[in-house]
Amino acid sequence: MVASLSAGTSAQYYTSLTAYYTETREPRGKWLLVGLDTGIAAGETVATTDFECLHAGLDRDGRSLLPEQATRAQRIGGYDLTFSAPKSVSVLWGLADEEVRTRIEAAHEAAIVTALNMLEKNAAFCRMGKGGTERVPTRLTVAAFRHGDARPAEHSDGEMFSDPNLHTHSIILNLGPKPGSVGALDGKALFAWKMAAGASYHAELAKQLGDLGLSIEPTGSNGLFEIAGIDAGLRDYFSARRRGIEDELDKHGLESRQAPALAAEITRATRKAKHDLESEDRFAAWRRHAHGLGFEPEALVRAAFQGLEADGPKIDAERHEADLRAKIEAIPRTLNETESVFEYRHLHAAIASALVGTGQPAARVEQEIERLTTSSAVVTLGHDVWGHAVLSTPEMVAIERDIGRMVGDLDPLRSTAPDPALVERLIATASLGAEQIAAVRAATRGDTVTIIEGAPGSGKTTTLRPIKEAWEAAGYRVIGSATAWKIANMLRDDLGIEARATDSWLAKEAAGQPFLDEKTVLVLDEAGLLSSRQ
Asked: How far is Cα of residue 228 from the mean position of the Cα atoms in its chain?
């Protein structure tokens, strides 16, 4: 996972782990951001006593930095924001010589600092006032612990060892300066901006690695990418830990992106001690394993750095810039495909992702947001609790206004309602509860639009059956629709009506085959899932 965030870190875990790795192979922790007046400076090595004191909310002399009510035993000491390099970056780092490794590590750290600075600007808040309703900007204090491998796992050839996995635990201490004192952070803001932090990390890492001469290949959402020239089979071999988790999820018929909480639980449950069972240097071991698969590490590293030369004809800078601007200008409409409104953080993450592979730094994100705002490509509808804009597009605003006008036009219209006596006979034979009876009566009054709301398992089909029979008895054709074919087919089978996915009905309409007239009743299941355009 690119940027995973968890609350409730243990100071002793990181400091003891750091002490162990200091004697073996990992670097000591490093302060990346220091927002507190503690005598510590960014860039300094993390001292165990400093870290443990701050994690406990204490200064160097053991005095509490927080108000009495914030020093309760169950307080969260910090948030672990873990930045993990793409697998191809970890593989290249693991197989390269010390000079190349150092350059990759510097790119990784620069990207993390960029993401943390973005997070501090947008998601660093303390709460003040009665009930903590006032949120004031603060500064972050972050200690970073870089690790280079995953936990041991069995590989496809039966070998048990730790894969190369360049990642950094960025511990955001739950302390922030606020007017007159120090307060706890608003953790909800950090969690809300986690994905944007990951996208910013990816965008800046791609820029930094591109500057080193590596070719970037975007591969997925939130800025995911890989380095060209690193064989996919080699990446897969060195992903034994992740593969084990995915295999476990597969037993449940899920993917990690569909069930991140379950994936995290499986990760914890299958975790093995993170220590080296071999005396062999890990970089030598990884090179040996790669060689055993038929890959010559030095040649592989050379091929990765030659990727730019093999990319084919270059697009001139002007054309490249035009393509990038067009890509960014399409983002607001893309966001509107799933939500009528979107938040500033969503736009930030989407633009950062679009920058991956373009050679542009993450710093350009805010320039592009300003450009979209100035050009009225996005419209500010309001602000969230942290003061960030809640946005939409002029097109979507117009669509929603049209929907409002349509409702107003439809409201006074009425259809010839089914015979009330028949409705009551159908109710009497259907074994309905009081709320179901009220729903049946509401849906058979002749109103043009009726909304029925019910929780899962509340008897939707049982309620719809007398409604359908009443309207058919009144001479109407009853049809069904849902956003998904699976739900539409259930309507078809349960009610004995023609039912289609919504897009299928709309496609028929567009092809000149209207499906609605004055004698049609449309049962629209899970209507809240419709997009405004639909």
From this structure: 25
β-bridge partners, 83:
3, 168
Spatial distance between the Cα atoms of 431 and 462, rounded to a whole number of angstroms = 9
Contact 206, 216 (CB under 8 A): yes
Question: 411-427 burial string, b = 16+ CB within 10 Å, else e?
Answer: eeeebeebeeeebeebb
Using CA atoms, how far apart are residues 338 and 354, in angstroms rounded to an integer?
18
Distance CA 374, CA 342 (A): 17
CB 188 within 8 A of CB 126: no
Residues 6+ positions from 255 with CB-CB distance below 8 Å: 246, 249
Distance CA 190, CA 430 (A): 51
pLDDT tens digit sequence for 319-370: 989 999 999 999 999 999 888 999 999 999 999 999 999 999 999 999 999 9
pTM of the model: 0.82
**Which residue's structure tokens are 């830990």?**
241
Neighbours of 487 (CB within 10 A): 18
Contact 65, 59 (CB under 8 A): yes
DSSP for 468-487, written as a single string: HHHHHHTT-EEEEEESSHHH
